[in-house]
What does this fold into?
Amino acid sequence: MKANTIVYDIGSTYTKAVAYHLVKGQLTWLGTGQSATTLEDVAIGARQAEEKITAQGIDFEALINRYSSCSAAGGLRMVAMGYMPQVTAKAAKEVAMTAGARVMEVISVDEPPEYREEVLHEIRPDIILLAGGTDNGDQTSALENARIICKAKVKAMVIVACNRNVQKKVAKILGEAGILNVRVPNIIPTIHQLNTKQAREAIHSHFINQIINAKGVKAFCQTLNNKEVIPTPGAIFFASELLAKGLFDKKGLGSLMLIDIGGATTDIHSAIPELEELKLEERGLVINNEKQFSYRTVEGNLGMRVSANGVLEAVGIKTLLNLIDQSIEVSEAEVIDYIEKVEEMTNHIAQHEKEKKIDQAIAICAIHLAIHRHAGMYAREDDAVMGVMAGTAIGRDLRHIKNIICAGGVFVNASDANRETIIRGAFKNPGNSLLPIDEPRVVFDDHYLMFSLGVLSKWFPDEVLNFMLKYWDSQ
It folds into this structure.
């Protein structure tokens, strides 16, 4: 069987390639290859990853379908400007979830105009999400923020996603100042409703325009069937959504959490189909990300390589040492030296048992912190203003999650026993967090498939869903 479909992922450190045989109704995985990303020309790294697959004895058909995701741009810097800080923050986080953007700051009309302008100068965002006012609601905040953007003379793309009744005026103000902008439907049409699809697509388009300037990307895109790349976080999330929910005529796995730990970030995705059945009054009077079907959090300072020191700073050296097998003598200095080394040598793979155990401790802590920040919690005390009693479950409720999927190099390169140790250690001591209590099934993405399945799901959802259900069932 020859490969007729290949999916790449151009990362900031590594480029991966996954080969499949795809025919109507059936998707078969054949092999995976990985190579260092070649920033001077990304196509070189893609070819090298492809050569790793052919070295496994896998042949390619002459006319092969090519697709790709990409995270090499590192994520677009985004500032959200709106009316109410809490509502704008939730909406901005939801919009950025799969679109390749990082929310750097959320500013509202509560802050003085001078402060808002200063934030724009300091962050120099790639994108400004201009929210504010439900439809037929407030108009003044959007107009005021548009003028501040003009005064700051930013070079960002402004996504005008505010009250529909004022969008034309806002776009005119920005346009006259020479600031690029695009209008999309209000992301908060009512106080308890999110409408993010068009805003995400606008960010996605800008993401593509941003990375297209990297050497070789434009030419590389011309070799792809769809002539563009998809942001890697979005691709992985598309796969998790499809796997959880399924399609109209085929059920998915049900609720799941996806742990994706990399060198720079630890991403937690959760998809809970049951939440789509909630009535508006059950979602709450104010917009609530935690009760959306899909939810993603990114811990940008927790990772295995670039952000390893972020883990050390968050938990302290004593915690890391306590997680290392006592049969192996490791000093504080050795742990600190190793963390400094991997932050510089981001493609370093643990060479001996001592390094593997330090990596294991880093992974436990990064995942532990990330899942606790993703999950909700039991209220510790009564809050008369919010109408919450002590012991009430608030936030993202993961107590009855049925499946946990683990992805990332630390799992691929670890033994079965070591990766199970990582998961057990990360979920130990849940405290008052709303983490799983029903012993969910844990599976591992052994071959870096999630990004490629997410990419293919846009065009071949039936084949991808059938493959995923069989693949996870086989573990």
Observations:
- The chain has a mean pLDDT of 88.
- The first strand starts at residue 3 and ends at 10.
- The two ends are 23 Å apart (CA to CA).
